[in-house]
Amino acid sequence: MSTALRLVDEHGPEALSVSRIAAEIGVKGPSMYNHISGRDELVEGLRELLVAQIDTGHAELRPWTVAAERWARAYRTVFAAHPRVVPLLTAQPVGSAATLESYERAYAVLREAHWPEAEIPAVVRSIEYFVIGSALDLMTRDPEQAELAFEIGLASLIKGLKERLTEHAEGHRRTSGPNPHDQGPAPS
């Protein structure tokens, strides 16, 4: 997969093909099909390669906002180093077990923070969409402006998500009524 990554980094997404990789490593194209079924499998291999480079220490951090911010930064660092791979990854659904496991770690942090289960995938996707766009932005803009935009955007995204979770918690308290374990003030 390192050859595939190098090819895409140097020549763009269109360079990703089984025959081109075979030529790069000095084997005949048909022999590669004994190891790789085609372009989709190459894309998943690239995804796994990049996901393996993302620092996963964020999953141990609390509160969830710190974990989410650290995940976003780690994710962006890796994707910004390989921006030409990003279009390949966004054009194909995730199938890699390693990638799904990384999502599950993020989901676990959000569950622990009491995010509504139905919103957890959307929260992760919101962060992911922002990070992917930011990684691509580094290819087209002044790096200092791209960094400033990332910092402002990430702070705003985390703040907005935190406010949404607070609204959910307040709405849940209003609709669930008084806590039966709360006896109120003691009689005087």
Could you explain how this protein is built, in words?
The chain has 188 residues and is mainly α. It has helices spanning 2-11, 18-25, 29-32, 39-53, 64-81, 86-90, 97-112, 120-140, 143-176. Helix 4 packs across helix 7, helix 5 (64-81) packs antiparallel against helix 9 (143-176) and helix 8 (120-140) runs antiparallel to helix 9 (143-176). Residues 180-188 have low confidence and may be disordered.
Categorize the overall geometry.
Answer: elongated
| DSSP E strands, number | 0
Radius of gyration: 22 Å
Residue stretches low in confidence (pLDDT < 50, at least 5 long) are: 180-188
Q: Would you identify the CATH H-level superfamily?
A: Tetracycline Repressor, domain 2
Number of helices: 9
Give me the strand/helix succession. Answer: HHHHHHHHH
SSE class: mainly alpha
SSE arrangement:
Elements: H1 2-11, H2 18-25, H3 29-32, H4 39-53, H5 64-81, H6 86-90, H7 97-112, H8 120-140, H9 143-176
Helix pairs in contact: 4-7, 5-7, 5-8, 5-9, 8-9
Outline of the structure:
The chain is mainly alpha-helical and 188 residues long. It contains 9 helices and no strands.
Question: Which properties best describe this structure?
Answer:
single chain, 188 residues, mainly alpha, Tetracycline Repressor, domain 2, elongated, disordered C terminus
